[in-house]
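Worked example 2:
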Amino acid sequence: MADAAMPDPLAELRDIHLPPAIESWPPAIGWWLLAALCLIGVFFTVKYLRGLWNKKAYRREAKKQLDQLFSASEHDQQAFLLNYNALLKRVALTAYPRDQVANLTGESWVAFLDLTGETHEFSMGPGQILVDGQYAPVNSVDVQHLFELGQQWIKNHRQVATP
C-alpha cells in the first residue's frame, strides 16, 4: 500500500522543448566570402574573354572583307588580286610591327606570309602570283585557292621571332 500513497516522480517532469529552428538569413560570414569570391571570379573571367574577343576583332573584320572580295571577284580578277594583296597587308600591319611589315614586297612579302602562316603556299603555290601579279597582265587567277589561302592565313597567322 505504500506504493499507492507515493506520488509518481515522472508525472512531475515537463515535456522536452526543442530549440528554435536555425534561421537561414543572414548567412554566415563564410557564405558571404564565397559569394564575393565567385563574383570576383566571374568578373575577371568575363574581362578576360572580352579581351580575347576584342583581340581577334581584326581577324573577323578581315574575313568579312575577304568574303566581299571573293563575291565580287567574278567581275574583275585583276581588282581581286590588288585588293586581296592590300587586305593581307592591312591585316599584317595590324598584327605585326609596322617596321617589320610595311616595306615588304615581292619575294620578301610572300616569304613573310609563309613564315607567319606556317605554310609554303605563298612562295611555292598559288600565292606566287602576289610577287608580281598586280603588275603583270593576269590571264587566269585561281581565285578560289587564293581565297582559301587568305582565309587560312587570316585565321592562323602567328607571331614569330624575327632575327
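Residues 57-156 form one domain. The radius of gyration is 36 Å.
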